[in-house]
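Subject: design request, 242 residues
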């Protein structure tokens, strides 16, 4: 695992965007695994700027997102589809018909999960997967627990995640309790992974990534088994790494 510690969030966003951009330049048809949340916003701004300066061309790329809340309409302000459109897709030259986010309104959610995994296979797997990390070590919405799932699945969000995500909603009661999430198998099959984390709240989870131990209590520890992971964290998030 390659570790890059940056002074602050701004530098983190720049470096993560550089790492991500390398893949798109090398492979213009790349399949991009994307994340939502607070962490990638700065990096997405950098990618938008690179696209505007013609340093990057997304016209032949496909994207596949990690997760989506169950029950939120794609137009809902806090749906992950809306997040992606607003923070990235509306500002770059990607073909929106080639951007995939799980459908949290699907009538048959089990089938939606199966179809999502088939879609990843059909696309030939993910070339670069961007990940944030929960305060509790979740990646995508693979929450800590007794067991982890390989495939895309329905997950009940933990109290810690509901509390963390309440900042995006008017009240905690509005945070959906369930989501569809790519599983650890889908993530681990990505050819390259870039994980970003900023702030002290992530320090404990990040420490686990460099512990040499794998535990379902911190799902991100699984990434230690992957061949090509770049972890870009600011000093606050890195502070407990030994
Ligand atoms: C989002 C996702 C989550 C977030 C994580 C960190 O698509 O999969 O795992 O990356 O909850 O969220 P932020 O960046 O808001 O701290």
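Subject: RE: design request

Done. Sequence follows.
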């Amino acid at each position: 695992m390659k570790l890059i510690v940056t002074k602050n969030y701004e530098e983190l966003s720049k470096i993560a965007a550089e790492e991500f951009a390398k893949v798109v330049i090398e492979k213009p048809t790349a399949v991009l695994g994307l994340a939502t949340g607070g962490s990638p916003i700065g990096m997405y701004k950098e990618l938008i700027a690179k696209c505007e300066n013609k340093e990057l061309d997304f016209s032949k790329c496909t994207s596949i997102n990690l997760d989506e809340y169950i029950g939120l309409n794609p137009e809902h302000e806090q749906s992950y589809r809306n997040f992606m459109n607003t923070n990235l897709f509306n500002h770059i030259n990607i073909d929106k018909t080639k951007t995939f986010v799980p459908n949290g309104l699907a009538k048959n959610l089990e089938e939606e999960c199966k179809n999502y995994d088939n879609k990843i296979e059909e696309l030939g797997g993910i070339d670069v997967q961007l990940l944030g990390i929960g305060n509790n070590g979740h990646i995508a919405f693979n929450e800590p627990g007794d067991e982890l799932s390989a495939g895309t699945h329905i997950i009940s969000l933990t109290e810690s995640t509901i509390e963390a995500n309440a900042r995006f909603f008017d009240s905690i009661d509005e945070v959906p309790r369930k989501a569809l999430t790519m599983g650890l198998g889908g993530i681990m099959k990505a050819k390259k992974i870039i994980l970003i984390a900023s702030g002290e709240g992530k320090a404990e989870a990040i420490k686990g990534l460099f512990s040499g131990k794998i535990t379902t209590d911190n799902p991100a520890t699984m990434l230690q088994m992957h061949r090509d992971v770049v972890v870009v964290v600011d000093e606050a998030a890195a502070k407990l790494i030994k």
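The mean pLDDT is 97.
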